[in-house]
């Protein structure tokens, strides 16, 4: 049980009145941000990424923040500071202002012409992640206006999150002398577990690799020399097949699942009890599952490594045509989802060693990696977050893991190893995260401000 959050008597009444008073302005601001198509994956929108940061900078400046927009070799990053008390600790709040492309034909309104309809704001980026950034900003503004305790705030909004945060580490390195070391890092770029507020404590890492096998310098006739010269495709496929078994379990030595402690086990059981398996079947459009056991499904997504083959190079792809030639040079495109406990470089070595046991000439190439991350369930910030969710959303949060990765987080952990990450969800999966008709509900805006105000109050009061 989280410790009770001691909010002052009139806190809730004042907060609700403030929300009532400010919500129209917040919606206008969100409309302005959503109307800027800051699609980081498309180079022609690079200027929009700069523009969206300039727009949000104006909003933050109105609340008293000083700010800086930093250029990287990729897209820019916005940093802003609000120092209330030089004695108080700093916290960092991370969000992103870039969005996914919005070319799905199922959009019922124009994705970059925001629309308020049936208590929802429709538009690309409304829930991921522009809306949650604004609710947090308004929570800060409320505490500041009413003179409530507030930690010193350092905002970091990037514009490459949807494209892998490739230059975020470079930004942190470049800004190292200007950045304040935060006591904790707040991230709201995650989603509810069904209808339950959620605090994400674990994210998987990712290793992208290519496995390559070459034999000779040109294709060979399968009749004249077939059965004599090696077929690298046969041999590579055979080696790859030893990396994962028919139940989807990785069989590469040393690439194993972590042992969960009692607290993690309890969090898993609690989520399994409310997990909607039917919904997952609908969302995965008829794909067969390795298991139908709900608890095991969650464990697999949260904390088991994966090994996936996505494609090959050097193979024949013309539909219906078979050319009876042996390929001489083949490559497999692979990904492995990893645990926070695993170093992607070690996994890369383990993978190469394992494949070379099948064929000594197989070479493995690193094609990009992200470390997983895990936050401390016992940190005071996490406990305050749980109490804040209960106040803000009216339900105690589930403590969850995520199968995916947020590229900026391992970089934060590299630069600020002693600052726990706190991930408070404000969006729902059914708000069409990354899909057509993305929207942010007005109820999530109100409750998001409530949750963030309570959380930041808790941190500010605790620091006094
Ligand atoms: Zn996203």
Uncertain segments: none
Strand % is: 15-25%
CATH topology of the largest domain: Aminopeptidase
Q: How many discrete structural domains? A: 3
- 3D shape: elongated
Give the helix tally: 12
Under CATH at level 1, the class of the largest domain stands as: Alpha Beta
What is the CATH architecture assignment of the largest domain?
3-Layer(aba) Sandwich
Radius of gyration: 24 Å
The secondary structure category is alpha+beta
* Main sheet properties: 9 strands, mixed
Organism: bacterium (Candidatus Blackallbacteria) CG17_big_fil_post_rev_8_21_14_2_50_48_46
Protein name: Peptidase M20 dimerisation domain-containing protein
Keywords: Hydrolase, Metal-binding, Protease
GO molecular function, one term: peptidase activity
From the structure above, extract its key features.
hydrolase; single chain; alpha+beta; four-stranded antiparallel beta sheet; binds zinc ion; Aminopeptidase; nine-stranded mixed beta sheet; 20% strand; Cyt/Met_Dipeptidase; Alpha-Beta Plaits; metal ion binding; 3 domains; 12 helices; metal-binding
Strands, helices and their partners?
Layout: H1 11-34, H2 46-62, E1 66-70, E2 77-82, E3 90-96, E4 115-117, E5 120-122, H3 126-146, E6 152-158, H4 168-174, E7 185-187, E8 198-203, E9 205-214, E10 220-221, H5 232-240, H6 262-274, H7 277-283, H8 294-303, E11 308-313, E12 325-326, E13 329-338, H9 344-358, E14 363-370, E15 373-374, H10 380-393, E16 398-402, H11 408-415, E17 421-424, E18 439-441, H12 442-462
Parallel strand pairs: 3-6, 3-7, 7-17, 8-16
Antiparallel strand pairs: 1-2, 2-6, 4-5, 5-18, 8-15, 8-17, 9-13, 9-14, 10-12, 11-13
Helix pairs in contact: 1-3, 1-12, 3-12, 4-11, 5-9, 6-8, 10-12
The structure holds zinc ion (ZN).
């Amino acid at each position: 049980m989280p410790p009770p959050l001691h909010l002052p008597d009139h806190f809730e009444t004042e907060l609700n009145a403030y929300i009532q008073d400010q919500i129209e302005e917040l919606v206008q601001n969100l409309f302005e941000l959503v109307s800027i198509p800051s699609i980081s994956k498309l180079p022609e929108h690079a200027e929009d990424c700069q523009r969206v940061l300039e727009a949000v900078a104006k909003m933050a400046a109105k609340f008293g923040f000083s700010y800086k927009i930093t250029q990287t070799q990729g897209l820019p990053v916005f940093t802003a500071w609000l120092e209330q008390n030089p004695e108080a600790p700093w916290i960092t709040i991370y969000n992103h202002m870039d969005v996914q492309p919005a070319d799905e034909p199922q959009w019922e309104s124009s994705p970059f012409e925001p629309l308020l309809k049936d208590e929802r704001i429709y538009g690309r980026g409304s829930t991921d992640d522009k809306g949650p950034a604004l609710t947090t900003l308004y929570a800060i503004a409320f505490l500041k206006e009413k003179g409530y305790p507030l930690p010193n705030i350092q905002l970091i909004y990037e514009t490459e999150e949807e494209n892998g945060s490739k230059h975020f580490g470079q930004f942190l390195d470049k800004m190292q002398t200007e950045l304040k070391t935060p006591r904790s890092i707040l991230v709201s770029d995650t989603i509810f577990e069904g209808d339950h507020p959620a605090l994400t404590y674990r994210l998987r890492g990712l290793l992208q690799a290519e496995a390559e096998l070459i034999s000779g310098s040109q294709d060979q006739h399968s009749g004249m020399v077939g059965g004599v010269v090696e077929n690298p495709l046969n041999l590579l496929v055979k080696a790859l097949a030893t990396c994962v078994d028919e139940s989807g379990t990785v069989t590469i030595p040393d690439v194993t699942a972590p042992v969960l402690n009692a607290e993690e086990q309890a969090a898993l059981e609690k989520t399994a009890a409310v997990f909607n398996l039917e919904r997952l079947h609908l969302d995965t459009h008829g794909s067969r599952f390795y298991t139908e056991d709900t608890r095991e499904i969650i464990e697999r997504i949260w904390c088991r490594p994966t090994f996936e083959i996505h494609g090959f190079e050097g193979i024949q792809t013309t539909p219906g045509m078979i050319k009876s030639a042996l390929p001489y040079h083949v490559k497999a495109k692979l990904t492995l989802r990893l645990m926070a406990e695993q170093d992607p470089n070690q996994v890369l070595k383990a993978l190469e060693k394992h494949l070379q046991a099948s064929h000594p000439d197989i070479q493995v190439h690193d094609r990009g990696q992200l470390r997983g991350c895990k936050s401390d369930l016992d940190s005071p910030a996490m406990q305050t977050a749980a109490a804040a969710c209960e106040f803000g959303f009216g339900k105690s949060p589930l403590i969850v893991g995520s199968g995916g990765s947020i590229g900026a987080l391992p970089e934060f952990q590299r630069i600020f190893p002693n600052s726990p990450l706190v991930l408070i969800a404000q969006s729902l999966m059914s708000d069409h995260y990354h899909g057509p008709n993305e929207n942010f509900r007005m109820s999530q805006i109100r409750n998001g401000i409530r949750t963030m105000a309570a959380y930041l109050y808790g941190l500010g009061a605790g620091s006094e």
